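W.,

You were right to be curious about this one. When I first looked at the sequence I had no strong expectations either way, so I just let the prediction run and decided to look at it fresh. Below is the sequence, 138 residues in total, followed by the output.
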Amino acid sequence: MMRHLIGLRRRYASERHPMPTDDMPELDRRSSDAASAPRKPRHPLPQREIRYETAETRARYLLQWLQGANGRTGHLPAPELKELYAEMCLQEGLDPGAWAPVGGALRRLIGSPPKRYAIFAGKRVRMWDIPAATSDEN
């Protein structure tokens, strides 16, 4: 029974799609001009060198950037800190990577304080306490 069905399948497939013979013209599916021309990018963007760093290094850069001249210290909501992190990565040419490892490394850098939460717009939001830069005048 199975051989009969396989034979029928082959017969109908060959009737619908005959094998090419010498008298049939061969179709070239590629256009000679389109295949050889290089593609242009859709959105020409300036190419930047992206640096790939570990989460600890990115957290250190973020803390230094936040404590810098135009940075932010004090109480920061987590969504705002994530936006600042993305902005810092863009400015410094860093690959942003995932936030969770960077957030864990940042927490260890600032001394593993207890997690604090606040209510913003009816939602519970994690608050980060970013310390001000310490002066080393010793």
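Here's what jumped out at me. The domain at 55-130 is CATH 3.90.1150 (Aspartate Aminotransferase, domain 1). And, maybe more interesting for your project: The longest strand covers residues 123-130.

Coffee later to discuss?

I.
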